[in-house]
Amino acid sequence: TPRYAVFGQPIAHSQSPAIHRHFADQFGIVLRYDAIEAAPAQFADVLAQFAHGGGIGANVTLPLKELAASLCAELGDAARIAGTVNTLTRLGDGWRGDNTDGDGLVRDITDHLGQDLRGRRTLLLGAGGAARGVAPALLDAGIDELVIANRTPERADALADRIGQPDRAHSRYWADLAHAGAFDLIVNATSAGRGSAALALPSSLLGARCLCYDLSYGEAATGFLAWARSGGALQAVDGLGMLIEQAASAFERWHGQRPDTAPVHAALRARAA
Ligand code: ATR
Fold first, then answer.
1. Are 189 and 215 in contact (CB under 8 A)?
2. Is 217 assigned to a binding site?
3. How confident is the model at residue 14 (pLDDT cuts 50, 70, 90)?
4. Is residue 21 within 8 Å of 33, Cβ to Cβ?
5. Cis, peptide link before residue 10, omega less than 30° from 0
6. What is the model's pLDDT at position 196?
7. Is the pLDDT of residue 197 over 80?
8. CATH architecture observed for domain 3-99
9. Cβ neighbours of 52 (radius 10 Å)
10. What is the whole-number distance in angstroms between the Cα of residue 234 and the centre of ligand 1?
11. Which of 22, 65, 90, 132 is catalytic?
12. What is the dihedral of CA 155, 158, 164, 165, to 10 degrees?
């Protein structure tokens, strides 16, 4: 049986094994997909062991995505630009690393939520690995202006520089957001977590048809989503859909077929409710 896994810390509550099993069932593919906990200091060894034991594909989550990029023999474009990897594919005696997070976010918004990204004025909160992973895909999907705000402003500047499209993507001070106008899409890529106090944001950011999207899901997303709903956002969604869509992109890379994600969205939402 071919072996697959997701690596992270913590990893016990990961939805990825269930998602991949669901996809595999759609095609009658038999595979083994485990959740494997690894601390950063042990990850290189644990991954080598996994390969030695027949592991041919893996997903990578926090806090190992940057480290995973450093362990790859080959990187896809999105992974190279982000400096982070969420999908590993065995190639000969090395790993190829891809980052399907941005693609997953865009697919969740366009295919699953049925919304058009083109022309949307977008605010990206955060400038860490998660923000780097989704910014290029949002720009490729045709959003209008991308404003990046981060608690530590130097990191927002660095991300804007890295994107290198000064006419479309630029940074703004967090403290200055009250004067940044209204947005059509607000993406929370911070790890600020629970409690709306963690993200003291002005409601003037919420445009009339604003979609608020938190890249996290579950408890970690509650603070931002509560802020969005109380401010009257048209839609406030967590990152469970993005998780499903990035898993589908990984599955497609490994098995050459894209699974139908709709039944998995329904099943996981039903379980979360
Ligand atoms: P990741 O790779 O998951 O993005 P990270 O690189 O540690 O993780 O980045 C976490 C992000 O959350 C950063 O943008 C961080 O802001 P700083 O760069 O200023 O640290 C942001 N963040 C974490 N806690 C926050 C808080 N309480 N308020 C606002 N931003 C916060």
1. yes
2. yes
3. very high
4. yes
5. yes
6. 58
7. no
8. 3-Layer(aba) Sandwich (3.40)
9. 8
10. 25
11. 65
12. 40
